[in-house]
């Protein structure tokens, strides 16, 4: 944006509607026109309700025509590429309104972290453009998820962190950051900034609450004063400019001298002139209220509150903001990672939309991988956001909020040719692009497409969560999570379509009826199934007391899922030390105190278990009945894991601790805090050769004798290869098979036959690979970028594979994670095998015994892996009860 002296008395002009253009300002010469025929088109128009079958013509970097195409015009086009969509869904490109692509680059390296300046709480003159790294590995990954445009923002260390920029994610011939910008104010892509005939919106990042308070050792009062002081400075400059222009307009030239301006503050003056879209990182009611008062004091509008975990509790506060209510940019379920996110609710999108507020789903990439931003919209839809608004939340709504709805976010004539062709309905689980066009240029050279079941072409019919949403508001965001009813007597499940159960290390179907069959009955007494089959078979049995009936409406009963890999069970709020078990002493980093065992110490997670956390209870209500957690460590040695019931009140309750000691856990990684990887492997070798002291030596002796699993958290293929050789070495010395499991294992797919031959198991966590660090750089991206996934490669080589989690707030989505993994694997995987990925396989690889007596989960209206189902009850034989939700 040029200095105000260029047009010192220019009265603010609002954005004009985009007039018809024949060629985009971002058109790349040599791009062939493309005709997409027979598509099912979701245009974004009519509040997201318009959809129709038709054709779309991309030419000159724009959508030349849509619907019934002028065939005579098409016939005159040279080098036309025609694609028959065969009825597949076509949508606008996904718009990520909160990203740090290019400024927090991946893989994460010290030399490419440019998201925050720490030179003061108020820095409106900083620009994300000046730190944009064009070599971020995540660009192509995000494009493969359908993301075509991103708002790249500075981080949230500062109250005013600086100016964001809008980028298109395609590589350009110039290869420069400037060439990636959507609308640049300079002479790039023949695009000129003309202040007399329209406005190019600027974007600015604000943040309040814990982040700036923590970075600058302040309080909310300090941060709020920093805002007010900064805006007062900008207001003084603006008032002086207005006075100058008033005198100039009346010809009083003798009373004025130089135009009053300050280069550092011009962007904040532009905020007060309505030229800037303000994006405000803000969580809690106190901070939301502070910012709303500031907008009214200084008379500027906020485009959107981001993260905004408590906005759904105070919609009237948002509606009292100056100018217009801010939109709200949310995560679907990520919460409780710090205190101000504690009241985050999965029902926030639904509640906010019902209050007439604009809802946007965002990634905060790389906090969440923006490749899967559409998944956030799918989960928001699952928990009650209407389908038209859910899809709009990642396309048309963010485009409108950032002021670019004149060219992106919709499929309309004359708009940018940013288009995604999907393999299934965009709101169905596992929806993946077949192709992505940005500025009319196809972005995936050779798309790898997986055939999907026909039902995924339809909008999922999601469960009714009205009661849960009402309770959330009634209890100020912290509704009780206990079951509605617990029975230690007889419970009869009716209208059951399928029952799956554990059989040794496998899952088998023990009852299968046509869905909707009214006669499927499962009778349970004190948590044990005593009968299943036709109604006439079971209801004649004698029961103790009056039975409780639960109609599953064609749903199913499946083994309870098992979560491993996050800190679920050892923490309630990640950022609050008083709510978590904390870190164990790390032998390779510092001396272990003698009082905990010195060099012979090994810590047990069982001693630090925390029951009744909201993470655990939400996981329980989502079908995860067992958690396995190891002590938290930043070093080589973590300790002994524990298996526990996610639904128990405390450890002394019957069945609360499933297994007190499960496995020994270590980690091999590159870190500033640790000695070399070779030193870590040497230390592990030393322990496996029997050189550990005290209790540490005792447990490692069990490992070397094959009586206890050794779980190594590792990602690099090179480190994995070293571990394979180490296993052979130890087994050649002890003559006992070593039970070794790799956790994390991003690059394990590069060594599938070697892992299989060594009889090593793998727990993929997360199941969606992402190159967050150098040792995770070589991911298997999967469709549409590659044929197959890490999961399919390992399964093809007969490796026992399980799925883990890395975030306790997202562990509850495990059932959808494994469903997604199976649908994108590109191989035939049965329902039983998919369920095993997050149940018996986890138990087998970690060493949980007695799995045949595990819990069962009953779901209404569908199977546990489906978007149309809802967990209705947990059948717990080990606790002798049924919890009914």
Automatic annotation (TrEMBL):
Xref: InterPro entries: Amidohydro-rel, DHOase/Allantoinase_Hydrolase, Metal-dep_hydrolase_composite, Metal_Hydrolase
UniProt xrefs under SUPFAM superfamilies: Composite domain of metallo-dependent hydrolases (SSF51338), Metallo-dependent hydrolases (SSF51556)
Pfam family, any one: Amidohydro_1
Q: Domain named Amidohydrolase-related: which ranges? A: 90-440
* Protein name (Swiss-Prot/TrEMBL): Amidohydrolase-related domain-containing protein
